[in-house]
Design goal:
7-stranded mixed β-sheet; 7 helices; about 30% helix
């Protein structure tokens, strides 16, 4: 994936009070990073942050962590928080790292929910294990989630969605919800918060696919 480099993005991430540096140091004690020891939800591949910022504002009883690999993308979320001033949610932090490191950052049972929104589809078959809904990543989520912990996944890529359903059927997960047209599904769309990508894709007439799964591991 080609991204436009944003000059100064790395320095902005490194100096931002909204970003956690050396996140491995918090493994097993993430609740101490927040003002209140509430359950923790994470978004992997959070992009420019609109989805997670809105969630954090709507649910002060939950602590949120956004994970984004690219500093040139994460800096946009930082700017959103800065522009909010004192209205910025205090129950939200960001981490600039690769998703493959999540088991090094979070201890077993430390996370209650994982959000995956419009993840890179990695369309070539040889790259299947890099998809964030591959069985390899599902195993990572099982390690960090509480018993019956939940993963919510949205995409506009049908091939990736079908792949994800197949991966789930071969793993220790229970399908709680599934739709091939989220915005026409009254139940699953009731509390939906759109990402920047979702707004763009749906405006072009693309259906949005969503699934919700819970880990069967006790």
């Amino acid at each position: 994936m080609r991204l436009k480099h944003v000059p100064g993005a790395e320095d902005a991430v490194a100096s931002s009070p909204f970003c956690i540096q050396n996140p491995e140091d918090f493994r097993g004690s993430w609740r101490t990073a927040f003002p209140d020891p509430n359950p923790i939800h994470i978004e992997i591949g959070m992009g420019k942050g609109r989805f997670l910022i809105q969630l954090a504002l709507k649910h002060p009883e939950i602590n949120y962590i956004g994970i984004e690999k690219y500093s040139s993308v994460l800096v946009r979320a930082i700017q959103k928080m800065q522009n909010m001033g004192t209205d910025a949610p205090g129950n939200l932090f960001f981490i600039c790292t690769d998703a493959e490191k999540i088991t090094e950052i979070f201890a077993p049972g430390e996370i209650s929910k994982v959000y995956l929104n419009f993840s890179d589809p990695w369309p070539k078959e040889r790259h299947a294990k890099r998809r964030l809904t591959s069985r390899q990543f599902l195993q990572h989520y099982e390690q960090i989630l509480i018993p019956q912990g939940v993963v919510e996944f949205k995409t506009d890529n049908k091939d990736l969605f079908d792949f994800s359903l197949n991966e789930i059927s071969d793993s220790h997960w229970k399908l709680l919800g599934c739709t091939y047209d989220l915005h026409k599904d009254e139940k699953l769309n009731a509390q939906n918060i759109m990402t920047e990508y979702e707004e763009k894709f749906s405006s072009l007439g693309n259906p949005i696919f969503k699934l919700i799964i819970a880990s069967l591991n006790a």
